[in-house]
Design brief:
The complex is a heterodimer of chains A (123) and B (94). Chain A is an alpha+beta fold and 123 residues long. Chain A contains 4 helices and 6 strands. Chain A is globular. Chain B contains 4 helices and 3 strands; from the N terminus they run αβααββα. Classes of the chains: A alpha+beta (123), B alpha+beta (94). Chains A and B meet through helix 3, strand 3, strand 4, helix 4 and strand 5 of A and helix 1, strand 1, helix 2, helix 3 and strand 2 of B. Strand 5 (109-113) of chain A pairs antiparallel with strand 1 (29-31) of chain B, so a sheet runs across the interface.
Chain lengths: 123, 94
């Protein structure tokens, strides 16, 4: 499921050299790690990290903060804008292109939030 | 039960007019400088998305709701999972 989400994120209509897709794996799954690393051959901007969780891991916020530290450590440092997709959220190809102009128009804008469309996928 | 249409098309749209958009947990775009300004993603509440957006708004940043379908995801497949999700949305850790 996460791999599908990652693939869709890589497939958005945006120059691949200008964005990264980072899988923040809070379950530290070896299988997912291997799968994402394999997909890197097709998507050079696809990355994977799994934090080491202590007793106070602060749930999703903790994982997101780990994501910030991780991208800060990459060549070029952290990005100016951060998009987030839940594990089961398939991004529309227009996702980033639709949200970014709002940020560019208003320098005081911190957050641009689209709705979530739900699809029930029976497995 | 899982139709978030009312939430987004009515409630969120209304809140947008008052400048009080809530972060919905997924699909959003954030300005890194704003996240740094509030000290990173706030960890005090398990409903970190709504809490984050409230902290941002409290510090004077703007937030908007963009009414375009840009992401689609799975909804909980059982009543129990639905209750667990709703509980998380009101601050009860899963």
């Amino acid at each position: 499921m996460v791999s599908n989400t990652a693939e869709a994120a890589c497939a958005i209509e945006y120059p691949s050299q200008l964005f990264r897709v980072v899988v923040l794996d809070d379950s530290a799954s070896d299988r997912l790690g291997m799968d994402i690393r394999r997909r890197k051959e097709t998507h050079q901007n696809l990355l994977y990290t799994a934090r080491v969780k202590g007793k106070n891991h602060d749930f999703k916020a903790g994982n997101l903060n780990h994501g910030l530290h991780y991208t800060d450590s990459l060549p070029g440092g952290g990005a100016e804008f951060i998009g987030a997709l839940d594990a089961d959220m398939i991004a529309d190809p227009q996702w980033l292109r639709a949200l970014l102009p709002h940020m560019l128009r208003n320098s005081k804008l911190a957050l641009a939030q689209p709705p979530q469309a739900g699809t029930l996928i029976r497995t | 039960m899982q139709g978030l249409d009312v939430n987004f098309k009515v409630t969120e749209a209304l809140k947008e007019t008052t400048g009080s958009t809530w972060c919905g947990g997924s699909g959003y775009l954030l300005r890194r400088a704003a996240v740094d300004d509030i000290g990173g993603f706030p960890t005090e509440s398990v409903g970190e998305d709504m809490y984050c957006s409230n902290v941002l708004l409290g510090k004077g940043w703007d937030a908007i709701y963009v009414d375009e379908t840009l992401q689609s995801g799975r909804v909980p497949e059982s009543y129990k999972a639905h209750v667990k999700q709703q509980g998380r949305w009101v601050g009860i850790p899963a």
